[in-house]
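Work Package 3 (structural annotation) set out to generate three-dimensional models for the target panel prioritized at the project kickoff. During this period the team completed the workflow that converts sequence records into discrete structure tokens, so that structures can be stored uniformly alongside our sequence database. As a representative example, we reproduce one entry of 180 residues exactly as it appears in the project archive.
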Amino acid sequence: MNVMEAIVNRRSVRKYSNKPIPTEVLARMRQALRYAPSACNNQPWHFILVADAKLRQDVAAAANGQEWIAEAPLIVVACGLPQQAYKRIGGYGNSVDIDLAIALDHLTLAAVAEGLGTCWIGAFGEERVKALLGVPAAVKVVTMTPLGYPGEAGLIRAVEDNRRKNEAEIFSVDRFGLAR
């Protein structure tokens, strides 16, 4: 599968099978995270791979009760290290959120290529997740995703073009301009 096929076929999967992820596939998922670019190559991140079934249930509960997250054999928790991030991004802050978004996007596309599903999770109690996973106060839990094989056929399928905004609505050349 080439990268454009992965982009077109990537979906948010909310139902997972209990099929384990083979060691060699998981190694490729870790590499997708590891090789992601970051501002100044600072790599201000740490990823917690939550495999324990009870702990996955606790993390899912901390994600506003989204219990389906725990169905996946793994939850990837993306932690940012703000002190290691590039400090002058856009003149207003550091790069930690963007760096983690890039890394997790690499993971989601690599997962599709392997037949795995993911779903960005942004709704969670950060302090509760930190307490469950022993994350230090200075570290930021940016996002997380379940990682596993979809529980039903057809959960990974091409994005329907008619459900995307047309190009005139989202692109302009040289100057900002929304189509009217």
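Helices lie at 3-9, 23-34, 53-62, 96-113, 126-133, 167-170.
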